[in-house]
Protein: NUDIX domain-containing protein
Amino acid sequence: MEVKLPTFDSVFSIDCVIFGFEAGELKILLIERNEEPFKDWLALPGYIVEQDESIDDAAERILYELTGLRDLHMQQFHTFGEVKRHPQGRVITVAYYALIRINGQKEVKPVTQYAKSAFWHPVNDLPKLAFDHSEIFNTGFNKIRRRLNYQPIAFELLPEKFTLTQLQSLYEAVLNKKLDKRNFRKKMLSYGFLKELDEKQKGVSYRAAKLYKFDRRKYAKIFQNELNLVQ
Amino acid sequence: MEVKLPTFDSVFSIDCVIFGFEAGELKILLIERNEEPFKDWLALPGYIVEQDESIDDAAERILYELTGLRDLHMQQFHTFGEVKRHPQGRVITVAYYALIRINGQKEVKPVTQYAKSAFWHPVNDLPKLAFDHSEIFNTGFNKIRRRLNYQPIAFELLPEKFTLTQLQSLYEAVLNKKLDKRNFRKKMLSYGFLKELDEKQKGVSYRAAKLYKFDRRKYAKIFQNELNLVQ
DNA sequence: ATTTAATGGTGTAATTTCGACACCTTATAT
DNA sequence: ATATAAGGTGTCGAAATTACACCATTAAAT
Structure:
């Protein structure tokens, strides 16, 4: 049985591609839709912008309502405006991304009923998503893959204290290629924005690695703008 | 006397930052507005997206109507969605840029009455623009400045046949720094996508320079993606 | 015919960066 | 004590980058 739904005119919406890194894998946040169209499908967290909020504010609000996550540093990356991208009417959507630390984050959980659930899903094995969300994801993934090379975004995905091996495996996951351990360490340390801590990794059944911290102040001092972080 | 104007609800618009290069200077296309608000102000070419056209199509149409230019390769670069950015209501605008050859282009001239005139203006000396168009311009300028380093966009701004000095002065104008002549030539030629022609510059009162052409095919063969074009 | 003015066009050497490559060390579990 | 698993480290050749200065060519002016 098909449900007949009202159509509407011009609407702005926001869709979010939220990246996280866990167990050596890059993941994104998906929701299970609880509304037509595409009820029960998996989708990117997204919803409609209100009249009296900026799109940046809307992005924060919508992500919170659908996942319970707050205060992420979201960044707009592309606007999708094909006429038929939404079956019910003209919806132009501004896509945002954010990078977050999965560990230490409480469980993600929708606050509204528009979504049944929210969860992390590896980027390597994504199902078909609602609307044009697969395309939105691909565009966003390409953006951060490139940005990884000239902006220090990796550190937003790692815990505050991390090992060089973790950092390297994050680069390898995003760029999808193996990097040389010695060259990677040499280069990363040469920038001078990694602060070596007096602490070591805990709870591993092998030699514990030194922990490092990203020193945002030093980074800002060294580079006004940006740099080539890898090869 | 103040004119009272109707307000409206959610509206999408497009604004265009069209770059050109002439007489060693980088320029953009401005229009003189013929409508409230900001009647008589200078502004970026821009207007409202129709219900039944994609934003990419709208960008092409609007640019044509306001400047008479057609078939440019326009690219979206950012969406501006502050609540108060338009005095009459909620207008979210998607900004596009394009790079074009000014020479050989017929004079730019609006086709509709929304604009009184359209003309090229050097980027170094821009007046205050209507709405948030100064901010839109700055964002766009930063984008192409970065893109110049890894994509062959310079050739869209130059005539089809150009000298190495012209190419260099374009890079200098966009990056706003002096480059070394010998190193610049060495590097550009080393890529292998510049085709040396059997022709020379004409009409100059000094030694004529060799002309070159950008070989798009070779470029595509050599680089699947992109590269660092300068230092 | 000669000179002047303006830009065209070219090479080398020192330095830095990149990339390939392998082994010993340390901590834990058994 | 031994096995296991990852941590951590240096060198050398190749390639890329940077700094740097002078002669050549053309047209215009004299």
About this structure: Residues 133-147 of chain A form the longest helix (15 residues). Residues 163-165, 181-182, 185-186, 204-210 of chain A lie near DNA strand D (CB under 10 Å from a C1'). Chain A is about 25% helix and 30% strand. Chain A touches chain B at residues 9-12, 49, 51-56, 58, 76, 78-79, 81-83, 90, 92, 94 (CB under 8 Å).
